[in-house]
Amino acid sequence: MLHIYQASLNSRLLLGTARFPSPAVLSQAVRAARAEVVTVSLRRESSGERSGQGFWGLIRELGVLVLPNTAGCHTVKEAVTTAHMAREVFGTSWIKLEVIGEDDTLQPDVFGLTEAARILCQEGFEVFPYTTEDLVVADRLLAAGCGVLMPWGAPIGSGRGLNNLFGLRALRAHFPGVPLIVDAGLGVPSHAAQALELGFDAVLINTAIAQARDPVQMAAAFAQAVEAGLAARLAGPIEPRDLAEPSTPVLGTAFRG
What pTM, to 2 d.p., does this model score? Predict the structure, then answer.
């Protein structure tokens, strides 16, 4: 069971809702992923890409928790204002906080992120900050009041997997009691399994599922990968070695001289 703020989740796979070919495919993918939390962009839903009422009807039918995000925000003021609007529209204090600092990689502006997180936490939001694997930034976000961290694996939509294994391992080791969700850049189910094997608590996937040839099948594959990664972590993987170690003992084995 994964505990985040006041929620207890069975699933370790969170699902983004953008770029699916149709609402019907999105609905099937959410079910195949066995996801209990979906992220929603206030800007996208307000832009007319989908009928707002139709989308809300779909979410209610699925019975999932909604995690609004501040996607597309580049300043503290913009992110805070969007978070306030999202709380009013979606009726939740949860907010996935994004403050983008660089357009090519969509890397978070960690300075703006920590300031926006401080403001929103003081105003009663339960903040899920999209951040890097930087330990100092992580410490500042936790000090600001965040109860969870969402470090990137790679740039959003890149499908490159876990780019900085050293940094991610260090983040997990330094904050053993903090829920950590790998967000962005995962491309195939093995990337998700690797994140769980490293000790991360969950993953958030959007593009890799929504843009797959068969989003529903890919959602099911990611669900299986997350379960396998968690099971492997709990089972206690062996430590990597530089030299071979025979699996069959040689002492007492007959040999011909």
Answer: 0.90
